[in-house]
Design a protein that fits this description.
Mean pLDDT: 97
Order of helices and strands: EHEHEHEHHEHEHEHEH
Low-confidence stretches: none
Strand order of the largest sheet: 1-2-3-4-5-6-7-8
Oligomer: single chain
Largest sheet: 8 strands, parallel, barrel
Number of strands: 8
Structural class: alpha/beta
Helix content: 40-55%
Length: 214
């Protein structure tokens, strides 16, 4: 198991500086992580830092609340792709999902996917705010809308990834869509647990600690 190839090396804090993003990219190169994940403002910088490498730039969209309009999410996603992002991690509209406005939620995911064409779309659920039934519905909506991944959490909610949530999501989608675990994954044992139950990607700011653990 090459753990580094599962990791989106992530820095999304509000106080992240230009130098912090450059350091993130240098670390990604040193450890050959799959991708770096940054806020949309830093996509162009990360792309420049990672030029001539195979490391992807992923950007969050509608982050971290998911409650902006669909048009804004689409615009942000398009701009990220134009600036070099190869993957988009969008937060679905949590409040609308909980309100039962499923068609609007699905249509929004579909619109973002259409806007980024063949690039990778990950849909962030923020499971800590959802019931199990709502998580299952979010899985179905993401699948219907053509998303490439479903993702547990932003890391900014009241809780992160859990084994129970991953099992629920995996049972719901099988192999039809990939799963990214994110939020609170800080050690080798936890990362391996998630991968062993079917996770294809791990979002973490602790990637170095995970891959250098003995």
């Amino acid at each position: 198991m090459q753990l580094n190839t599962y990791i989106d090396h992530t820095l999304l804090k509000a106080d992240a500086t230009v130098n912090d993003i450059k350091k993130l990219c240098a670390e990604a190169k040193e450890h050959s992580f799959y991708a770096v994940c940054v806020n949309s403002y830093y996509v162009a910088l990360a792309e420049s830092e990672l030029m001539h490498t195979d490391i992807k730039v992923a950007s969050v969209v509608g982050f971290p609340l998911g409650s902006m309009t669909s048009q804004i999410k689409v615009f942000e996603a398009k701009q990220c792709i134009d600036q070099g992002a190869k993957e988009i991690d969008m937060v679905l509209n949590i409040g609308l999902l909980k309100s039962g406005y499923y068609k609007i939620v699905e249509d929004e995911i579909r619109a973002v996917k259409k806007a980024i064409d063949n690039y990778t779309l990950k849909v962030i659920f923020e499971n800590c705010y959802l019931t199990d039934e709502e998580k299952k519905i979010a899985c179905k909506l993401s699948l219907n809308a053509g998303a490439d991944f479903i993702k547990t959490s932003t890391g900014f909610g009241t809780g992160g990834a859990t084994i129970e949530d991953i099992k629920l999501m995996k049972k719901e989608v099988g192999d039809a869509i990939k799963i990214k675990a994110s939020g609170g994954i800080r050690d080798l044992e936890t990362a391996k647990q998630y991968i062993n139950i079917g996770v294809s990607r791990i979002g973490t700011s602790s990637g170095i600690a995970i891959v250098t653990s003995k």
